[in-house]
Design brief:
With 477 residues, this protein is of the alpha/beta class. The protein has one domain: Glycosidases (TIM Barrel, Alpha-Beta Barrel). The protein is 39% helix and 13% strand. It has 15 helices and 14 strands. An eight-stranded parallel barrel has the order 1-2-3-4-5-7-11-12, surrounded by four helices. Strands 6-8 form a two-stranded parallel sheet. The longest helix has 25 residues. The chain is globular and about 60 Å long. InterPro entries: GH, GH_1_N_CS, Glyco_hydro_1, Glyco_hydro_1_AS.
């Protein structure tokens, strides 16, 4: 079996998000956020992608994010398990509403700040560096209801106050940061990504791109503040990346795939990495008669506030065809395409394409020439606890092994890669469906879709496999 040479100091670890693991949704003076009002179950995805959501809690529905897996109270136990696997880094997010419960306060909430002090201290005690996402699908609900989310320019000011508070507080504890999680997901899931629900199809484009612009300004502000307050820190952007294949060699389909790839995969990253709007978007704005409110100094700020690296999630590739008649569609991570006859799919219909990760790494590095960081990759699957208590998730090991091999190949191709953090290193609440049964972790959590379970932690077979991968720096897969 071929072995791979991963760089010395490669950042092996796992990834989570505050709203999917913490729970304690009303503790520590935390305010409500978007995730707190999203019900669990398969209806969640349709809510996220449909007009008219009211951002209210329905007493008739279940809200699994409220307790999640109770990391808020069990973080020491979980971090000890991460350390046992040998994690070099742990990617996590700060819940904005733990720091500013309504989003627009003048002073930060000390209870929230102190909670993350304890988490970071526990990580460092166990030899693990935190990699922190500043905003990960949990915008303060007050900013959604009172201001209309990222459509409103005032939110930039509130975000600036938030990032300054956490940079000053954690300047000696966190050196790896990312601004917005999967920022480009706002195209298809504006509720979580941009903080508002599209009301009509006709009204979709202008507010979406205006909200993106405000996030680009906010990201640039965060980058500059991070560099000023924490010299030597690295701060990146984070995108959802899925390479787009043409269904066949028909030039119309090739062009359609190119257009889909540029808009979804590259638009946001182009602005955050290159510091300017790409040429192709100007043509798009002209076609849709979109005129953005760009204030004086915005473009200069965006140019000055470019990120240090590109973090991205990779779960699948996409295959596209301009005319989708008489063709079978595929599911995916928020966005699908047409079925690729060369690929198998997961329990949730996401096509499995390890080679697509190598392709993605090469495409991104060729385009941007900055370090890359695979900060999400994993297999959501149904796990069975055997009578003897074991969980033999060989399917997950196979999935991750093949994707890490693809990373090894990309490194040999010349790609500069900082690290790899497997998504959902401990079972958590699915962002798209609010399910516990869609499990990603090396660590099983006894919690189920009906709300039952003890929350006890249990090591899966993949736990020991990944521990060995890290111990050998990827040589033994």
């Amino acid at each position: 079996m071929k072995t791979y040479q991963f760089p010395e100091g490669f950042l092996w670890g796992g990834a989570t998000a505050a709203n999917q693991i913490e729970g304690g949704f009303h503790e520590g003076n935390k305010g409500l956020n978007i995730a707190d009002v999203l019900p669990g179950g398969k209806e969640r995805l349709s809510i996220l992608q449909s007009p008219g959501f009211n951002f209210e809690i329905d007493p008739e529905k279940d809200y699994p994010n409220h307790e999640a897996i109770d990391f808020y109270h069990r973080y020491k136990e979980d971090i000890a398990l991460f350390a046992e696997m040998g994690f070099k880094v742990f990617r996590m997010s700060i819940a904005w509403t733990r720091i500013f419960p309504n989003g627009n306060e003048l002073e930060a909430n000390e209870e929230g700040l102190a909670f993350y002090d304890r988490v970071f201290d526990e990580l460092h005690k166990n030899g693990i560096e935190p990699v922190v996402t500043i905003s990960h699908y949990e915008m303060p609900l007050n900013l959604v209801k009172e201001y209309g989310g990222w459509r409103n320019r005032k939110v930039v000011t509130f975000f600036e106050r938030y990032v300054n508070a956490i940079f000053h507080r954690y300047k000696n504890k966190v050196k790896y940061w990312m601004t917005f999680n999967e920022i480009n997901s706002g195209f298809i899931m504006p509720i979580q990504g941009l903080g508002f629900a599209i009301q009509t199809e006709e009204d979709k484009y202008k507010p979406t791109f205006q909200a993106f612009h405000h996030q680009f300004v906010a990201s640039a502000i965060a980058v500059k503040a991070c560099h000023d307050i924490i010299p030597g820190a690295q701060i990146g952007c984070m995108i959802l990346y899925a390479p787009v294949y043409s269904y066949d060699s028909n030039p119309e389909n090739v062009m359609y795939a190119l257009q889909e790839e540029r808009m979804f995969n590259y638009f946001c990253a182009d602005v955050q990495v290159r510091g300017e709007y790409p040429a192709f978007i100007k043509c798009y704005f002209d076609e849709l008669k979109i005129e953005l409110d760009i204030q004086e100094g915005d473009l200069e700020l965006i140019k000055e506030g470019t990120v240090d690296y590109v973090g991205f999630s990779y779960y699948m590739s996409r295959t596209e065809k301009k005319e989708k008649t008489d063709i079978e569609n595929s599911e995916g991570n928020l966005i699908g395409g047409v079925k690729n006859p060369f690929l198998k799919a997961s329990d949730w219909g996401w096509e499995i394409d390890p080679e697509g990760l190598r392709i993605s790494l090469n495409q991104l590095f060729d385009r941007y020439q900055v370090p890359l960081f695979v900060v999400e990759n994993g297999l959501g699957a149904y796990d069975k606890v055997e009578e003897d208590g074991s969980i033999n998730d060989d399917y997950r090991i196979d999935f991750l092994r093949n994707h890490i091999k693809a990373i090894g190949e990309a490194i040999e191709d010349g790609v500069e890669l900082m690290g790899y953090t497997s998504w959902g290193c401990i079972d958590l609440v699915s962002a798209s469906s609010g399910e516990f049964s869609k499990r990603y972790g090396f660590i099983y959590v006894d919690k189920h879709d009906d709300g039952s379970g003890t929350l006890a932690r249990k090591k899966k077979k993949s736990f020991f496999w990944y521990k060995d991968v890290i111990a050998t720096n990827g040589e033994r897969l």
